[in-house]
Amino acid sequence: MMRKTFKQEMMEMKDEVLMLSSMVENAAMQSVLALKENDLERSRSVLKDDLIINRKRYEIETAIMVLIATQQPIARDLRMLAASLDVGTELERIGDYAKGIATINLRSGGVSLPALLSEIYIMAEKSVDLLHQSMTAYADEDIQAAKRLVAEDDVIDTCYNNLYSKVVQILIDD
């Protein structure tokens, strides 16, 4: 049996991180769509998928640790592996947020939530698009694209702050 080269193993690891990202993007959109449409079955599906996301993260971490232990990478390769560990952790955390949104929808028990919460869907679309662009920059190792994306996070913060203010005002008025 032929042994894989280190470069092949690095490419496979990056592919696995991108696969995790795709899973997380899907979970995020499905959870907010379920909230928007009050779709309890879709929320249950997001909860099931969260277990798969968690498992994938730990598989990636294990593979990276094995690569580090067996190949003893240095410089750029070691930085890429360390960054991939961090990216995997953050992706899994985003998956947990999707699970949280799905749980909120399930706890609503089929009761329609305020229409204002459907604005979360718009914010999620922007966030998932930003995540997708970020992961493209990661895959291409495009530092300039990554730097440009940092400013776009402010758009998400603005959406969040506007939504938060509207919800607080509704609570005050009620």
What is the rounded distance between the termini?
Answer: 70 Å
Q: What multimeric state do the chains show?
A: single chain
| Average pLDDT score | 91
The profile of the biggest β sheet is:
none
Given the structure, what is the number of helices?
A: 5
Q: How would you describe this structure to a colleague?
A:
This protein has helices at 6-37, 40-71, 75-107, 119-140, 143-173. By secondary structure, the protein is mainly alpha-helical.
Task: Please provide a brief summary of the model.
The protein has 174 residues and is mainly alpha-helical. The protein has helices at residues 6-37, 40-71, 75-107, 119-140, 143-173.
Secondary-structure topology with pairs:
Layout: H1 6-37, H2 40-71, H3 75-107, H4 119-140, H5 143-173
Helix pairs in contact: 1-2, 1-3, 1-4, 2-3, 4-5
Task: Considering the chains and any ligands shown, give keywords for the structure.
single chain, 174 residues, mainly alpha, elongated
